[in-house]
Amino acid sequence: MRQRFLKILLIRLRLIGDVVLTTPIVRALRRAYPEARLTYLVEPQAAPVVEVNPHLDAVIVAPLLAGFARWRADIALGLRLRRERYDMVIDFHGGPRSSWLTLAAGAPVRVGYAVVGRGWMYTQQVARPRGHRERHSVHNQWDLVAAVAPSAAPLTPAADPVEMPEQPAASVQVVARLQQLGFERDAEVIVVHVGAGNDFRRWPEESFAEVVARLSAARPNRRIILTTGAAQAERAETVRRLATALGVGCDALAVACDWSLAEIRSLLGRAALFVGGDSGPAHIAATTGVPMVVLYGPTTAAVWGPWRDPALVTEIVDNGPLPCRPCDQRTCEPGDFRCLRGIGPGAVVSAAERAMDRERSARTLNRTV
Questions:
Q1: Residue 50, C-beta contacts closer than 8 angstroms, at least 6 positions apart
Q2: Are residues 246 and 362 in the same domain?
Q3: How far apart are CA 317 and CA 247, in angstroms?
Q4: Of 89, 182, 327, 356, which is least packed with CB atoms within 10 Å of its CB?
Q5: Could you tell me the CA-to-CA distances from 236 to 209, 232, 242 in Å, in that order?
Q6: In the Cβ-directed half-sphere of 237, how many Cα atoms lie within 13 Å?
Q7: At what angle do helices 345-368 and 205-218 cross, to 10 degrees?
Q8: Domain for residue 151, yes or no?
Q9: Cβ neighbours of 322 (radius 10 Å)
Q10: Sheet of 222-227: strands edge to edge?
Q11: Do the beta carbons of residue 263 and residue 177 sit within 8 Å?
Q12: Do 354 and 248 belong together in one domain?
């Protein structure tokens, strides 16, 4: 007989993409425990991913502070969680902060990974083998749910894709922004995400610029938007400058570094193509039907690939098998980041055109059926 949980807390801190990849599990938990109150604890940067999730009852945002202010805020948050009297807490993260908050909540059932030095904080520990396994992150996180609901059916990307509902206000804002940029209603908008958190994820600006120039030149109605966070605005401006030098008109190219995450989601939902590396925006793109071209360097699509219906158009580009790939992104053994930087612009352009051709063919087929 399945145990009854009336109040469940889910914790996933840190990165946007990681939070996106938990959304299929949120939906599955709602199916498994329809009467439960589901709450999600997340940090500010990823809060927009889940704040309008239809399967959640509440979202708690853990502030990002430093020093003594961080400790004081976490103690206050821990006391708040304890007052809620959750029946179960599932920690999808396993880091020091999330482990402590799981323990502080005081739930009788606390589920997490068997992490050295912190596993004792959980009442249910799930093995997380060291080293790289060619097993998707969604499946790895599902192991935590299977520990307390072993009869629950395994997840598939077709039945339980990632999700981030579009916010109406963001949709209105995106339409206005596109009009301000002078993009025509029938423009084929291509979103190219040039952001990179570290050297391992940094595809050269020159390569991005060549892709932009070749895609722009192929069709006169194409309009390209370079996206990245505000902290990397200079990188996007460099790509724009290089692409302009290659002949891309100023009216066909724009930079979006100050758009909210909800606006990026809305933009991707109406785009003709997404191009970018393994990143948060790539996983947000997977919550829409946009054709995707995703570049993989130190990571692999088998573990971090877009988790969505296989019928949707997705093209994966990488540099093939390498003895040092995948890696932990701490030290590049060859020293030249060849896993990602060895990908040529031509391979990405070919994948992009192939993706858009596949999408056009699918639409034509649907109209004739």
A1: 19, 23, 26, 40, 42, 56, 59, 164
A2: yes
A3: 25
A4: 182
A5: 10, 7, 10
A6: 7
A7: 40
A8: no
A9: 16
A10: 253-256, 222-227, 188-193, 273-277, 292-296, 314-318
A11: yes
A12: yes
E strands in 209-279: 222-227, 253-256, 273-277
Alpha carbon distance 135, 143 (integer Å): 12
Residue 217 tokens read as: 């030149």
**Beta strand pairing status for 7-11 and 88-91?**
parallel
Supply the range of the domain harboring residue 187: 168-368
| CATH classification at residue 316 | 3.40.50.2000
| Rounded Cα gap, residues 224 and 95, in angstroms | 38
Q: What is the total count of domains within the chain?
A: 2
pLDDT at 2: 54
Residue 266 lies in a domain: yes
What phi and psi values does residue 276 have, to the nearest 5 degrees?
175, 175
* pLDDT 10s digits, 54-112: 999 999 999 999 999 999 999 999 999 999 999 999 999 999 999 999 999 999 999 99
- 357: Cβ contacts below 8 Å, ≥ 6 apart: none
What span, in angstroms and rounded, lies between the C-alpha atoms of 49 and 281?
Answer: 11
**Mean per-residue pLDDT of the chain:** 94
CA 243 to chain centre: 27
Instruction: With cut-offs at 50, 70 and 90, classify the pLDDT of residue 369.
Output: low
- Structural tokens at position 241: 């400058």
